[in-house]
Each structure stands twice: as C-alpha cells, then as structure tokens.
Specification:
Length: 289
C-alpha cells in the first residue's frame, strides 16, 4: 500500500511540476475561447483576408475557414466585453477602439501603434472607407469635404487613427443645409460620430444622423439611397462599386489582436492566429500547432 501511495504521490508531483513549468513559459492548458465578428463585418472581412483564414481557390472563390464554434459578436464593444471577461479569450478589434480593459498582442514581434502602422511594420492594417454616389446632396458633399479637410483629418488622428492626407486644406463650407444619414461599420462609427459632432459646430445648418450596423449594410444603404454615406472598415468590392457607388478612403486603421489582461501571452505569429481561428490550435500551451 505504501509503495502504491508513493507512486501516486510521485505522479501528482510530476503533474504539478509540469504545470509549474508550463506557467513559467507563459502558457495555459485551458482551451482558447475564439471570438469573431459576424458575417458582413468589415473588420472580420479584412481580418480573415490579411491573416490567411480566408482562402481563395483557382477560380477566385473565397472560403472563410473561421472555426464553426467561434463565439460571434456583432459589435466592437461586445468583443471587448467578452475578451475582458474571459481569461482564455482571443478576439480582434479596430486599433482605434483599443482600451485598457484588454491587452493587445504583438504580431510577429511588432506592437500595434501609430508609428508601426504608418511604417508598415505592423501587418494587419486596413482602410476606413466611405461609400457615396455621384451627385451627393450639397449637405452630404459638404460633410465629405469636412472629413477630408485638415480639420477632419486632425480629428481622425486625435481619435487614434492614421490620417490619409497630411497636407489637406482647411475646411471651407459650401453653406449647405439639411440632414445627412450615415450608416454602416461599427468600427468606423466612433470616429464618424466625432467627425459629425465637430462638423455640426462648423456648419450649424446641417444635421448628421450616424447609424451603426456593419460594413456590408452601410454599403447597401448607400447603393439603395437609404443613407447618403455608407461606412466600411474594409475595401469596397468591384461588385459593390459596379452598383453606382464610389469608394473614398478617409483614414487608415489597424486590427488589434486582443486577449484578456490576465493572459501571460505577449506575442503571436500570423501562423498562430490562423491556427487558432481555423481550429488547429486549441489551447494556449499547444506549441506544436
């Protein structure tokens, strides 16, 4: 009996030692909670394309290989809430929406920052676009002019995004009046709300109604005339452009890969991101996958 007890004690000791060694390497044997965005999200579309989760066959057909049991969240705020409340979670959000409730991982050794986004060292970068039709109303055109002016671009930069024109001229109003409806991406919405607030002070004769949904919905709204301006946190496709709209880039943004603040992981590779989101790597300690 003593021999058997000694053997069991030795086994338990070995297991405890292995767990301690694993912890010292910054890992955890707990299963990763994979959090993704919904279909139609521009952030999801850009993320799966840039990280190789989306694959294209010889005919150009695209397949999104995000694992089927990923937890789907319909806005940036929900992703932040889920990751901040789950020590094993991983998610992705707009860099400009990053806050101290979560931790942004380095990707391939590069921390997401304004400097690394501008330099091209941080690789998960996408544009913020607006979709508009030719022949905008005077009010909608005035608001677009404001966004692209030095005044609007400064607001974009102060909000944590990358301005696309550092030599833009100051805003000059066309004296328009009326109401503008802007709809689409939940990633673009926070900075668009700041732009709308500042613009309405610059031109008090115009009201801007910003409606949050997703990139695909915003683009459809612009095509159908439901909104004057559609917001998209991804490139606008050739098919969408063929339906009577044009794409205007208003800012550049990165996608931050985020984990819980208690997660010891600090850095992740593009291959690891793909492995986690396609389901071949399921635990933080699984170094072989």
């Amino acid at each position: 009996m003593k021999t058997r007890t000694s053997k069991l004690a030795a086994i338990f000791t070995s297991v405890a030692l292995a767990a301690t060694m694993l912890a010292s390497c910054g890992g955890s044997s707990d299963k990763i909670t994979v959090i993704s965005r919904e279909d139609g999200s521009g952030t999801r579309g850009a993320f799966i394309e840039l990280t190789g989760i989306e694959e294209k066959d010889s005919n150009g057909n695209k397949t999104d290989n995000t694992k089927k049991d990923a937890l789907i969240c319909k806005s940036t705020d929900v992703v932040l809430t889920q990751v901040s409340g789950d020590k094993n979670a991983i998610g992705y959000i707009s860099f400009g929406s990053l806050n101290d409730t979560v931790k942004a991982l380095k990707v391939e050794g590069v921390e997401p920052s304004t400097a690394t986004i501008e330099s091209g060292d941080y690789k998960i970068v996408r544009p913020f676009n607006i979709a508009v039709k030719d022949g905008l109303s005077d009010a909608a055109q005035d608001f677009e002019n404001y966004i692209l002016s030095s005044d609007g671009q400064d607001i974009i930069e102060k909000a944590g995004y990358i301005k696309i024109d550092k030599s833009a001229a100051a805003y000059a109003s066309n004296n328009a009046s009326g109401k503008i409806v802007v709809s689409g991406s939940s990633s673009v919405t926070p900075v668009m709300e700041k732009l709308a607030e500042a613009y309405q002070k610059a031109n008090t004769n115009v009201t801007v109604d910003v409606q949050q949904s997703d990139s695909s919905t915003g683009i459809k709204d612009a095509i159908n005339g439901t909104s004057d301006i559609g917001m998209a946190s991804r490139d606008i496709s050739d098919d969408e452009l063929s339906q009577g709209i044009k794409s205007v880039t208003i800012a550049q943004d990165a996608i931050a890969v985020i984990v819980n603040k208690d997660n010891a992981v600090e850095d992740i590779t593009m291959d690891e991101i793909k492995a986690i989101y396609t389901g071949s790597k399921t635990t933080w300690s699984d170094e072989s996958k």
